[in-house]
């Protein structure tokens, strides 16, 4: 398809598509003469991914370029390729390891992974931004005197593991490896806000079931 | 306790506590003479809540004041009081109802609530920001050609309902109604980032289980 069709199919303006091409976020089309290039389904898919990250995820262009670099690096295994792509997304800053709450949270997170038998996640604790986010959020809860127990944390973790199984089952329905990696990145940008919305809706439903509207 | 003790117990500087008092985010202490006021456990709890919203949730002072107004309004029933407090938190903007994807997403969300039997949530669709967020995020997925089915959405919703049951069970362990409402607001600010971290960790674990690290 030509640029105008690519624009029509994607709902992205030709000016924006040209900008993405210049920034290297979209691979060049196949040049069929000096002024015309031809684009295919792969361009359309990539354009949707870029738009999701920039317009929905509000992710900076340089970060999008970095994520796409990992998405396209087929020299890596799938877990690492996925990890590298997701890890390049904006993350929480490194926690202060001198802080007593951070140290306690780290012990709590490590105990959780051990109890759950998440042996793979345990191998990644020194490098995974997800692990770092968990430590930061548990430390924030502790600092505020939110005195819950390890069992509650485990119940939440088990629910999130079921969500991860659903995510990966869906990713596996995609035909090509490139589509699978792209779907995983899209999921991180788009599915997380949806889960949060469902969570709050479920709280409203459950609250009204327990206490009514009076 | 005196101001200095309140500061020591909460880890919040006396200058910041004075600022919160001036802004009306913290009720005044009991004046025991012209220059000294006495604070109690309730001040400490409120201070933690304010700090969580401002420092962890990055919520503007005016919004915090609005949320606290609902938290403290004991003329309302618990569901409404909780809803009013959570709804005052920053939310997604109103979706464009002229947009075909938004209309389709609304139908999908309505069908979901019907199928799930969430009759209470259905009563709130015209006013609930959580419902609006769901419509916005489903519309974004649709617009990007993320062609999943209604069954997957329902599976996610069921998981989030279990998370909501855990949330409210924990809220009910708090002794006073004021603490229960405060815990619910803290949960929205602090537990959601933790769920997201657990979700990503679970994805790493599940991905490595399925595909290894090669």
From TrEMBL, chains A, B:
Alphabetical UniProt keywords: DNA-binding
Protein's name according to its UniProt entry: Transcriptional regulator
Domain HTH merR-type: start-end pairs: 1-70
GO molecular function: DNA binding; DNA-binding transcription factor activity
Annotated source species: Streptomyces griseoruber
Keyword DNA-binding annotated: yes
Gene3D superfamilies from the UniProt entry: 1.10.1660.10
């Amino acid at each position: 398809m030509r640029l105008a069709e690519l624009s029509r199919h994607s709902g992205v303006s030709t000016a924006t598509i040209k900008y993405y091409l210049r920034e290297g976020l979209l691979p060049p089309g196949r040049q069929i003469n000096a002024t015309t290039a031809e684009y295919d389904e792969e361009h359309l898919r990539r354009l949707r991914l870029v738009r999701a990250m920039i317009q929905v995820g509000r992710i900076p262009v340089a970060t999008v370029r970095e994520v796409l670099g990992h998405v396209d690096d087929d020299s890596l295994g799938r877990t690492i390729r996925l990890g590298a792509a997701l890890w390049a997304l904006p993350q929480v800053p490194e926690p202060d390891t001198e802080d007593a709450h951070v140290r306690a949270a780290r012990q709590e997170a490590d105990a959780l992974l051990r109890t759950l038998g998440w042996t793979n996640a345990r191998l990644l604790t020194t490098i995974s931004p997800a692990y770092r986010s968990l430590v930061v959020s548990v430390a924030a809860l502790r600092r505020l005197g939110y005195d819950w127990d390890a069992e509650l944390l485990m119940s939440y973790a088990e629910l999130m593991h079921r969500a991860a199984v659903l995510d990966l089952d869906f990713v596996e329905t995609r035909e090509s490896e490139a589509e699978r990696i792209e779907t995983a990145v899209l999921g991180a940008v788009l599915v997380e806000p949806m889960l949060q919305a469902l969570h709050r809706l479920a709280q409203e439903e459950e609250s009204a079931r327990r206490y009514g509207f009076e």
